[in-house]
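Discussion board: Methods & Data

I've been asked by a reviewer to show the raw model output for two of the constructs in my manuscript, not just the figures. I'm not sure how much to include, so I'm pasting the format here to get opinions. Each protein appears as its amino acid sequence followed by a line of discrete structure tokens. Is this the kind of thing reviewers expect to see in a supplement, or should I convert it first? Here is construct A:
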Amino acid sequence: MTAAATLPAPVRRRPLRAVLRRPSSAVAFAFLVLLVGSAIAAPVIAPHDPDAQELGNRFAGVSLSHLAGTDEFGRDVLSRLLYAARIAVTAPLISVGVAVLVGLPAGLWAGRRRGVVDAVSGRLADTLLSLPALASALAIVAVLGPGLTNAMIAVGIIFSPTVFRVVRGATLAVAEETFIESAAAIGCSTRRTLWVHVLPNIAAPLLVQVTILMGVALLAEASLSFIGLGVQPPDASWGSMLGAAYRSQYDAPYAVVPPGIALVLTVLTFNTLGDALRDVLSGRRAS
């Protein structure tokens, strides 16, 4: 019997509803909806052009015309925060998408076929996991070139061994079930067995891992943008805004606050939802 089958029926049918019954998860989900809505509506709700410069109004404080002040070029910080929310949504999707695209098929195949395929894939994943993540991402970006897409592809490649190990472990457990043996006995091909019978039964741990990786990916994007290898000027990301604030800390020590708070809250949101999903899908109660 699979782990999913041991869960209460309402949880199996409506896992999102079970997650949202928790107050912390409901708040996190509401913040995520607000973030996505702000990213989509940024051109409408942003009070100023995020790239418009007012060099005579550098490092202005909070005012009615600039609710979060201005940066080193006199650009409106609130407008740049709203436009940077688009990066906060799309960057993790790109990197986690690459990780799943690479790690999911490899993990399914290795967990099902075992033998030499499993051994070689496992040692390759262990080798990649043993390397410093940020240094590896920097090396990949050096080959691909700076920019958001290339940076997130690099992060996705670094994440792919983690996805591989989660999928492989779950596949090894499901592959021992009777219904998998029955599928093979009636002539189902390996591909059909993996995608039709195995994948739906390993979706729970994969979903939890993806949710948690979203927060890690956002931190990775912010780190690369902070040092100039992610989002390129004049586009805004919270990481590049933190980098600019760091370089101007003596002129405006408060400039790190808006992008820093936005980054912390978003990463905390992904982690809270990931933990809640893990607890619900494993049958734990809220503490």
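Construct B, same format:
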Amino acid sequence: MNKAFIIDEDRKRRLGFEEVIFGASKSVALLSDLLKDYVEKNKNVLITKLQAEKAKHLLEDFKTAFYDDESEIFMLSHHEISDESPTRIGIVSAGSSDIGVANETYYTLEYMGVKSEVIHDVGVAGLQRLLDHLEHLKTFDILIVVAGFEGALPTVVGGLLPQPIIAVPTSVGYGTAKAGETALHAMLTSCANGITVVNIDNGYGAAMSAFRMLNLIEK
């Protein structure tokens, strides 16, 4: 039987980053075969949305890999970031329930060799917490803002700060939060001009959007 996958070996040349694996819908056997192919080709590997039970099995065979339970990020080898590298991206997380998506963003950027910083628990229910960080937030080139419930935080940040803002709705909240749909619609209809919005719980997508922006800035 033919392999169920074909690695896009040319993606790094075309786009500046390697192919990334979405882990949620793949079996352990398929993921193991993929990882072996990547290792044989001496390529870095990033798997997103990988459930803990699958990660447990993979870590038995790939002992140098890294896995984070909260973000469900699995990395096998990744780019080293110098301590002298500037912190280019600020990740602003509304509440402690958003940590998983915020960390997915952080680890994706780390894998891509980009230094970032997460500022946790600064949602609009306690606006003074965000304002306490305002001067520091001005130092970043790009801001990624993660929020669930009514999804208001990106609009507030977009009304206070001039950088490109990437908004990430999360599936956090009761009832009519509708597993992130309310936050998504709120962000899409934001009155703060020029906010970019990714899909629900897509911290990886936000990180990759920021990575593309940085690559253009550096040119």
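Answer (T.O., handling editor elsewhere):
This is acceptable in a supplement if you add a one-line summary per construct. For B, something like: The chain is about 35% helix and 15% strand.
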